[in-house]
Amino acid sequence: MTATAPTRRTPSAAERAEGWKAPGQDAGWLNPLKERFLLRLLVKKELRVRYRGSVLGMVWSYVKPAVQFLVFYIAMGVFLELNKGTPAYAVYLFSGIVVVNLFGEVFGNATRSITGNGALVSKIYIPSQLFPWASMMVALVHFLPQLLVLVVGAVLNGWLPSPTAAVAFLLGMLILLVFTMGLGMLTAALNAAFRDVENFVDLIVMVATWLSPVLYRIDMVQKSLDGTIWWWLYQLNPLTIVVQLFHVAFWRYSKPVVDELATDHPFAYTLAQPGEPYGLWWAGLLIAVAVFVVGTIVFERSKRRFAQEL
Known about the structure:
Blueprint: H1 13-17, H2 31-34, H3 36-50, H4 60-79, H5 82-85, H6 89-111, H7 113-116, H8 118-123, H9 130-156, H10 163-193, H11 197-210, H12 218-225, H13 229-236, H14 238-250, H15 255-262, H16 281-302, H17 306-309
Helix pairs in contact: 3-9, 4-6, 6-9, 6-10, 6-11, 6-14, 10-14, 10-16, 14-16
């Protein structure tokens, strides 16, 4: 008895009209838009799993950044006396901390999103792109309380919303999320094959805190590196650009800073040109889009091997 090759089913006219797809096919990088219902379910699942058995629950979204802020403020602001040379240093510091916290959570969670959902990836078909995107949305849920604290702190320091601040914030969020999701999808694909990748990601997040102007002013870096290629590389770091945009959005127009600048104080607060509030935002956006495209391509080409690699 000879085996016959399986025949490929041809969809009917009604199925084609409804957008029928063969099993295993999906919309690629458009899956987060096409499969919004599944994406919401994954976000809810991630939140339930994260706080299962937790007493404080979402309160950890306030506790962890608060402790981080206090440690950095005492070490850098009090011991190294940066608070004396930087008006509204608490706002300056926290506006940078929320950036690196969001970067770290999106990057780390996206990297582990495929391996952490190995049972789902290997047993049933769910578009793989949904896992890193769900990680990003969970990180945004944790980001909102930190943003609220930052806004309250800025208001207490005489900050008032303005079109400049709003545009700077939106640009910063756009660059940060596009850049981090690109990195996250790239490392998620690599981590499925090589588990060492997630350890490298932890190191990158730790180093990123110190290689962007979160704890110190950028003019300190300029004094040390001005005129060298390292100064331009430092400025072109997308995280540096995002942190500076957040400084423009929440710190630059607080009353202590405005009063200080009115006396022609020489410290810098922007990139490239001291009078330009948005600095090198265009470079940050271009780099972020390029990283996102590369990460998406690598993820798309790797996703069919995830079930075997897990």
